[in-house]
Amino acid sequence: MLAGFDLNETHVVEEEIDYGDPTITARDVVDRETLKSFVTQAGEWFLEIQKTGDLTALSKAKIALRDPNGPWRHGNVYIYILDRISNVVRVHAAFPNRFELRPLVGIARDGVTGELILPQVIEAAKSSPEGGFVEYFYDDPADDTDRADIPKVGYAREFKGSFQIADGRVVPLNIIVGSGFYGRAPDVVPDGPLTQVEATVSGDAVEGLTVEFAQSIAGQQPNYAYNAVTDANGYLSLTISNPDGVSGYYTARASNADGEIVGQWHSIPLNHNQRQVLELTLSGDMKVVRVGPLAASKPVLAAETEVSGLAPNFPNPFNSATLITYHLSSPGPVQLVIYNVLGQPVRTLVDKSQAAGSYQIRWDVLDQRGVSLSTGIYIARLSYPGGMQTQRLLYLK
To answer: Helix or strand or coil: residue 352?
Structure first.
């Protein structure tokens, strides 16, 4: 027996969405002041809707926050809401399918230090009644030329309240609302051939896998010289550099904590001075999702040359060497020393008097004796006339 009917739009009624009419919208966020106002208005608006206990209104509020044509989302500026009662991501306006309703543990790691970002966000939000700012390193999902080592500025604030349900019980509310905006590096071509690879591995048990890359050379065994470890989402990021060039086809393999090979991929095309995003499945499938120009390291700008200090090293993270740049506004004795996380000096790169100006020095991840160091975080400390500055370096062997 068959049946059917004609379907048309005459029965559909356009749903009205309340956007809250903020005075500072996502499009207006350009600095810390506008970011703080934007987050504050979003938190106050969403909390008042929560206090009503109206699930339909809450559902519409989420629609409003996710709307790329609305006031709460523009480009890479969007709202996220953390529920401190249930300890889950309540709202993520940019990637709801990826992050919403996930526990506040094990997601979103700093692209340079490897530390979890959400604990830093929560700490900033609770630092004062008006919230606080936090800087972290995270790849901009809306910009193909962004690098994970360009700092991002976030602001988060805690909001509390309560509402009464039908049986008379009072339900507490405690949310953290946050957002951020992304800085930009000048478009300078990096020194030396290299490429930035980002990949997401899908399948069973993808967290904590060591993924190694090697250039495919006919008649030679693969030299897996580049590697990174996947996070809870199977995501990894690494830099491939080689003075002889990096363009060509690569092979990769993934191993678990026991050293067992659980995935292999072949014929991965990579090109120098590119940022390439890959999708890898443990069954062996490989897909190139996106290829774009690689933004370069931030040089010492004219406005920055009035003061002494370190510029961001490049690349960071790195797996063979990194270039450290610093500026001196006045002549005098200078020391540039690399320390491990225990505070022990492992290499002195500079120890002499220098004239005012900008300098660059390459660190090849060797200690003072010329011995290769292990993977991890290192600290570069620059001592100069009138001051001292430190910077984190992430070595991924």
So the answer is: strand
Residue in the block written with tokens 């095309």: 269
pLDDT tens digit string along 331-345?
889 999 999 877 789
Residue 65, phi-psi category: left (phi > 0), alpha (psi -120 to 50), beta (remainder):
alpha
What dihedral angle (degrees, nearest 10) is formed by the CA atoms of 163, 169, 172, 173?
A: -40
Which of 290, 337, 275, 301 has its CA nearest to residue 149?
275
| Predicted confidence (pLDDT) per residue in 149-168, tens digit | 456 788 999 999 998 888 88
pTM score, whole prediction: 0.47
d(CA 341, CA 328): 26
Q: What is the mean pLDDT of the chain?
A: 81
194-202 and 235-241 strand pairing: antiparallel
CA angle, corner 336, sides to 331 and 340, nearest 5? Answer: 160
Phi and psi based region of residue 365 (left: phi greater than 0; alpha: psi -120 to 50; beta: remaining): left
Alpha helices in the chain (DSSP H): 32-52, 55-66, 96-99, 118-125
pLDDT digits (tens, 9 = 90+) for 223-240: 887 888 887 788 888 888
The residue type of 206 is V
Question: Contact 152/183 with Cβ under 8 angstroms?
Answer: yes
Q: Tell me, what's the pLDDT at 4? A: 57
Name, in order, each residue with C-beta under 8 angstroms of 170's C-beta and a sequence gap of 6 or more. Answer: 162, 163, 164
Residues whose CB falls within 8 Å of the CB of residue 114, separated by 6 or more in sequence, listed in order? 377, 394
Distance CA 107, CA 105 (A): 6
Greater confidence (295 vs 219) lies with 219
